[in-house]
Structures are given as C-alpha cells and as structure tokens.
C-alpha cells in the first residue's frame, strides 16, 4: 500500500483562496530516497503544494501523510513539521552574509539543537566532521573561511542547501535552485542534488528544462492545481496537455 511505503503521500488535496481552487484534488507521492522534479506554468499550484507540505497552508480537504503514513501533516504546525525532517529552500538565498561559510553551517547545526543564532556552543569533533562533509557536498570546502557575502549567487544557493542539510531532513524541498545561476553552476547543481538524494528524498521545483533533463528523474507537471502528467522527461514533454498548458506557451 502506497500510504505505508511512501515518504510523502498527498491524496485528493484541495485548497481554495476566496473561491479560487489553487489545488484541485491533487495527489502526489514521493518514495524514500527519491529525487523528483516539479514543473508547471505560473499559478499551477506548485508553491501552494509546498505550503501544504510544510504546514504553512491547511488543505480544505484531502490527506497529507509523512513517513510511511505514520504522521498526519495536516495536524502539525510549521515548526513541528521542520522538526520532523522536512526542510524547505526558498528561491532567494537567506544566508548570513556577514558570517563565514563555516559559521553559517555551524549556526545551522546549532539551530537543529534549538540553540539559536549563537556560535558559543562548542562543536564536538563529530559536528566538525559533519560540517566538513557538508562543505564537500555543496562544493564549498575551498571557501569555508570566506564571508558568505563574497560568494557567487550560485554558491550562496549551495550554502543554503548545506545549511538545510545540517538539519538532517528526510525530505528536502527546493524552489527554483538554478534561477540566476551560470551554466556551469546549473550543471553542478544537478550533480549535487543527485548526490544529496542518495541519503534523503528531494523535491525540486524548476522551470529550466535543460536542468530537469540533466536530473534525469521522474517529473510531475502541475496545472490548475492538479497533476497534468507524470513520468520521464521525454514522456511528460511529449504530452499534448503539457505542451498546450506549459511548454508551448
Ligand atoms: P505556482 O507556484 O505554481 O506559480 P501558486 O501555488 O503560487 O502557483 O498559486 C496558485 C494559485 O493560487 C494562483 O492563482 C495564486 O494567485 C493563488 N494563491 C496562492 N496563494 C494564495 C493566497 N495566499 N491567497 C490568495 N490566492 C493565492
């Protein structure tokens, strides 16, 4: 049964704003360790779907379960959902510009313990090793002593992904990571997200079709609040409804 085997399970989720159906009986399943791409036109409901998963918005109807059906996310608030292991990266990077790359990661690690905005909590050798590991993952080892302000836009995005990794999420939601990146950074981001998805599930919302193709994973195309097509990029990009509603626009 898909409720108990999946990491994230949305079934028949609907939500309206002033009578406008932003999500219309949306069903969406993410397996443990899966990397999934979400595409769709503006207003399709992609952000609203993320808001439902993270508890920012409550559905009017439908089911939202996490961790093999064990946790009903509609009964949890945003802080609880973050603690349960769902991390979200918004489009704009929000790193601490006046701190070094290392300190940003240290702050993120301390935040996981509930120690807010302090660098006075001494790190164990295990913590230091974890920070080194995250630096490798997000390609920032050579810049660890640099102020975050001096990073390129792409590197700031990677640092923020690293800060989310410090919280050890089971599911990472990533909103338009490659917007504004150079071609080289975009290509590297596809590799980086694939590596991250070896140890957790990742859902990435993107418009960059070249990047989506590089990811080479299952794609879900949303339109008007529900799933228009789902499958490989070749399958989805050849779907007549997807061409009419999104790609052909
Ligand atoms: P996407 O992220 O795919 O562009 P959204 O989820 O942001 O789509 O929006 C889906 C629809 O719901 C849009 O028409 C948007 O205007 C509407 N919407 C989203 N959030 C709200 C809100 N808080 N209040 C009113 N309307 C909203």
UniProtKB/TrEMBL annotation:
GO cellular component term of the entry, any: plasma membrane
Q: Is the keyword Transcription assigned to this protein?
A: no
ABC transporter domain residues are 8-249
> Which domain of life does this protein belong to?
Bacteria
**For this protein, what is any one GO molecular function term?**
ATP binding
The alphabetical list of record keywords is:
ATP-binding, Nucleotide-binding, Transport
Family matches, as SUPFAM superfamilies:
P-loop containing nucleoside triphosphate hydrolases
For this protein, the record's Gene3D superfamilies field holds: P-loop containing nucleotide triphosphate hydrolases
Record has tRNA-binding as a keyword: no
Q: Know the name of this protein?
A: Urea ABC transporter ATP-binding protein UrtD
Q: Which gene encodes it?
A: urtD
């Amino acid at each position: 049964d898909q409720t108990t085997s999946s990491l994230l399970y949305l079934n028949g989720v609907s939500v309206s704003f002033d009578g406008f159906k932003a999500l219309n009986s949306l069903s969406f399943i993410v397996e443990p360790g899966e990397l999934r791409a979400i595409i769709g036109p503006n207003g399709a409901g992609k952000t609203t779907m993320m808001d439902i998963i993270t508890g920012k918005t409550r559905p009017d109807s439908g089911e939202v379960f996490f961790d093999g059906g064990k946790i009903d996310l509609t009964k949890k608030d945003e802080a609880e959902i973050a603690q349960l292991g769902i991390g979200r990266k918004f489009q704009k990077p929000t790193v601490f510009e006046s701190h070094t790359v290392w300190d940003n990661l240290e702050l993120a690690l301390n935040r996981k313990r509930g120690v807010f905005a302090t660098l006075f909590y001494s790190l164990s050798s295990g913590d230091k090793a974890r920070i080194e590991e995250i630096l490798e993952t997000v390609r920032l080892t050579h810049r660890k002593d640099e102020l975050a302000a001096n990073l390129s836009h792409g590197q700031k995005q990677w640092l923020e992904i690293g800060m989310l990794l410090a919280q050890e999420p089971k599911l990472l939601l990533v909103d338009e990571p490659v917007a504004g990146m150079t071609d080289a950074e975009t290509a590297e981001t596809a590799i980086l997200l694939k590596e991250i998805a070896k140890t957790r599930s990742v859902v990435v919302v993107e418009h960059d079709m070249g990047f989506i193709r590089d990811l080479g994973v299952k794609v879900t195309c949303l339109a008007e609040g529900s799933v228009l097509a789902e499958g490989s990029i070749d399958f989805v990009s050849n779907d007549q409804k997807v061409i009419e509603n999104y790609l052909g626009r």
